[in-house]
Hints:
five-stranded parallel beta sheet, 44% helix, Rossmann fold, two-stranded antiparallel ribbon
Amino acid sequence: MGSILTIGIAGGTGSGKTTITRRLQRQFDSRVCTLYHDNYYHAHDGLTMEERARLNYDEPAAFETDLLVEHLARLRAGQAVDGPIYDYTVHNRAPETQHIEPAPVVLVEGILILASPELCKSLDIKVFVDADADVRILRRIVRDVRDRGRSLESVVNQYLTTVKPMHELYVEPSKRKADIIIPEGGHNEVAMELLIRRIQAHLQEAENNG
């Protein structure tokens, strides 16, 4: 397959990571594949729904990052992987997996990907998406209530007890590991154009060398 470009897209909850990821997916289609860190939350089959709901999902220990690193290495080696799927409505990993074929560009998205030194070493370009805290909490409320079956009270409670303190402890400091910081997420057209051009250059180079 030739060289594979890996791009990490990090940032706080509701910062606009997914907007950027989806725009790149639409732009490059099958030439891009994506690993979402959220899908690598640990499985908690032995806990009740209430117990799972009380867990801290915003600290590095919540994720099976070693498995993500392993899957990224396999994709870089041109091998397909069967990645986990996380079901937000039940706070647990789904029994199904998703088959991911390798592509010339691999995107890795998640709030804490830059907090993992091992994962950082596997990323060619590290992006941090920045947004004001009030914008992020409003986006999270809309998303979790509309798409994830959460109540307003549960979203606000989770934000105040774990999301906000963990953001300050882990996510915000990880910004220093980024090569590129993008304010305003996917709505920052200058930054999007730069990312798109970088990917286009990589794809052209891979084609020429292929």
